[in-house]
Design a protein that fits this description.
The chain is of the alpha+beta class. The protein is built from 4 helices and 8 strands; from the N terminus they run αββαβαβββββα.
Length: 178
């Protein structure tokens, strides 16, 4: 087990009781030196005061226990709109959602799969895509997250004129007609 994995395991063990005390779930713990990132959530969304309180509690624990080697920055955050899917119950809660999955290199087929998560159990998931259904075991998934369609982009072609450009154009036409 590498130092990074060991640090993540130790930190996860230390922050779990804190998360339980505040009624939050640990979604993920990442350590990409120099950033230690703890992602937390609550069933009805994360209240900003709870985020502040949990951050303070984790910071005090880290000061007391010193589980992270070297200098680092602590980041405690919510998962955001596009949520990472790490554990079976994360996938189960996301059934019906759009997802993006990256498979392990040795998995046959496409490495990146995007579609609707149609099923998830303790063994794996099924994703419905334009090309059909893909069933994967959890061990075949390198990373996964829900995706959010932000809506259509700007239409190609004419761009809207700014108010200043429209005013200048009107003034130019007015001057030319005199």
């Amino acid at each position: 087990m590498g130092n990074q994995t060991r640090t993540i395991d130790v930190v996860t063990g230390l922050v779990t009781p804190i998360a339980d005390d505040f009624g939050v779930e640990i979604i993920d713990v990442e350590f990409n030196q120099p950033v230690l990132k703890v992602v937390i959530d609550q069933p009805d969304g994360l209240d900003s005061q709870v985020l502040v309180d949990v951050t303070k509690a984790i910071s005090r624990m880290i000061d007391a226990e010193d589980p992270v080697p070297g200098t680092f920055t602590l980041e405690v955050t919510s998962p955001g709109v596009e949520r990472p899917l790490k554990r079976p119950h994360h996938f189960q809660r996301a059934i019906g959602s759009d997802v993006a999955v990256k498979t392990e290199p040795d998995v046959e087929g496409d490495r990146r799969i995007e579609g609707v998560l149609t099923a998830a159990d303790e063994y794996g998931v099924t994703i419905s895509t334009e090309s059909g259904e893909h069933t994967l075991r959890y061990g075949e998934i390198r990373s996964a997250r829900t995706t959010f369609a932000w809506g259509p982009g700007p239409k190609p072609g004419k761009q809207k004129k700014s108010a200043n450009a429209a005013t200048k154009e009107a003034e130019t036409k007015e001057s030319a007609s005199r």
